[in-house]
Amino acid sequence: MAGVVVTAIETPLQDAVADLLRQSDEVAARLYPGEYRRPITPQSLATPDTRVLVARCEGRAMGLCVLFDRGDGTAELKRMIVDGGARGQGIGAALLRGVWEEAGRLGVRLILLEVGTRNTEAQDLYRGAGSTDRGPFPPYRASPISLFMERAV
Length: 153
Prior knowledge:
27% of the residues lie in helices and 33% in strands. The chain has 153 residues and is of the alpha+beta class.
């Protein structure tokens, strides 16, 4: 890695976030063509219960993830994406550390997430960070392309 990775909560209303969300949508389209994809826009993330965590290296946005506070002591982790040119450099792990810290500040006790069955890299990252398998949580239902996980904060 070229430098130190810094993670921080940032506004979703910026070009760097839009670019990373586009990459996320491209990965999803490649892995899961058809009905299961749900694109997310920067505008849809600009809500009081949503935190967008951006990882930067030397000022450049290298990855992001989104934490939705569910208001019941749980939060959902979504849209983890690392720039295609920065994968394998610890960006995902840095984002997860930032998520755990932010969740703790929010008083969240449990992080929930849904990950695609074909996204084995993400599954390995989440499991390596202490996430365990669980059943679907609202608003999700069982799906042939989804795995559900959780991690205590």
